[in-house]
């Protein structure tokens, strides 16, 4: 930066556009004009360096696509792996009630948390291992979880998000061309509500994800208030700001395999961005994420139309390049694998640096 002229420094591009130069300050002594301009440039440079680091180092790389369930031709965005959903059927009052019940869980003693939510992987309370602490704990429940605590709103909220999630999965399957195995058989899926306390902290300008991961088809998170989140997509870390009362939808690893790689995905759950100003309030910041996933006995495989070997060979022999190209596109890019083995691996190893699906690519 030292080799740039003052005018160039004042018009340096930023993530938010070009910084315009301020109007010139009158000078009584023309001899000091160059010195004053340099001083102004240095002052501006210092000011830019004082701006909050996360806003500069983690800009929103893509705008957050908006999708309405009331659209006449519903075609959910699939290019990024995430979008915000409007015109859904979930009332904000239900979300508020569910959050109030969720907050009460974290005020329980450690013994009560373990007693009321015993571990039945992946269900139960997570926070009694040596990697956890008071500000990093979570509860994983489903709509059928039995507990002595009054959690009627949270369970109703779970069912409401599940209904929306199933709609999204059906629309995604239609848009990219695979058969939705959940459409007529409710035994083919399960829904997990992950209630977490400040698992996603931002430190040294980088997202920190300390919560457990779990495979899912789609994830849904109702936005009660204005909040930024970091997502680890196939394109890297991105920051998004969903609208209040919208639902942040993330496409998961199972959906990517089902679509034969046509759908982009998000790895893990959204990470709330909490600045240093929120440190004293971390214990009161929670996220409620509904993951539509699969039963343990499931097998994951691409759901693409299969072509017979003799048909493929016949097309190649006759030199039909268009059909051969189509056949190449329809070849499975993932091999089939056990959901239980995969889920156990990503849950316990907390894989983030490397895509856990890489070992299953053909």
TrEMBL record:
Q: Where is the Isopenicillin N synthase-like Fe(2+) 2OG dioxygenase domain?
A: 224-271
Domain of life of the source: Eukaryota
The annotated region (Disordered) lies at 1-43
Provide ranges: composition bias, Polar residues: 1-11
Q: Could you identify this protein by its name?
A: Isopenicillin N synthase-like Fe(2+) 2OG dioxygenase domain-containing protein
- Which species is this record about? Dillenia turbinata
């Amino acid at each position: 930066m030292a080799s740039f002229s003052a005018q160039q420094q004042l018009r340096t591009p930023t993530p938010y556009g070009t910084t315009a130069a301020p109007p010139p300050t009158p000078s009584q002594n023309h001899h000091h004009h160059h010195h004053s301009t340099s001083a102004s440039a240095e002052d501006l440079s210092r000011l830019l360096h004082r701006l909050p680091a996360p806003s500069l180092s983690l800009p929103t790389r893509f705008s957050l696509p908006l999708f309405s369930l009331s659209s006449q031709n519903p075609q959910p965005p699939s290019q990024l792996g995430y979008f915000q959903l409007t015109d859904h059927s979930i009332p904000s009052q239900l979300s508020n009630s569910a959050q109030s019940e969720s907050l009460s869980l974290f005020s329980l003693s450690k013994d009560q948390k373990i007693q009321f939510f015993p571990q039945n992987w992946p269900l139960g309370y997570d926070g009694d291992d040596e990697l956890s602490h008071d500000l990093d704990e979570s509860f994983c429940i489903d709509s059928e979880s039995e507990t002595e605590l009054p959690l009627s709103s949270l369970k109703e909220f779970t069912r409401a998000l599940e209904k929306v999630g199933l709609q999204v999965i059906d629309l995604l399957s239609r848009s990219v061309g695979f058969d939705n195995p959940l459409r007529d058989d409710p035994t083919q899926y399960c829904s997990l509500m992950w209630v977490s306390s400040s698992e996603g902290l931002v430190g040294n300008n980088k997202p920190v994800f300390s919560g457990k991961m779990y495979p899912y088809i789609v994830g849904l998170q109702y936005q009660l208030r204005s909040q930024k989140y970091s997502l680890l997509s196939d394109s890297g870390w991105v920051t998004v700001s969903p609208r209040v009362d919208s639902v942040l939808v993330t496409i998961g690893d199972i959906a990517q395999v089902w679509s034969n790689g046509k759908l982009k995905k998000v790895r893990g759950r959204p990470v709330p961005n909490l600045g240093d100003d929120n440190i004293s309030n971390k214990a009161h910041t929670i996220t409620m994420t509904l993951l539509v996933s699969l039963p343990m006995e499931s097998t994951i495989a691409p759901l693409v139309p299969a072509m017979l070997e003799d048909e493929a060979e016949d097309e190649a022999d006759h030199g039909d390049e268009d059909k051969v190209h189509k056949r190449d596109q329809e070849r499975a890019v993932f091999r089939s694998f056990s959901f239980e083995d995969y889920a156990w691996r990503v849950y316990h190893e907390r894989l983030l640096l490397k895509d856990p699906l890489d070992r299953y690519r053909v």
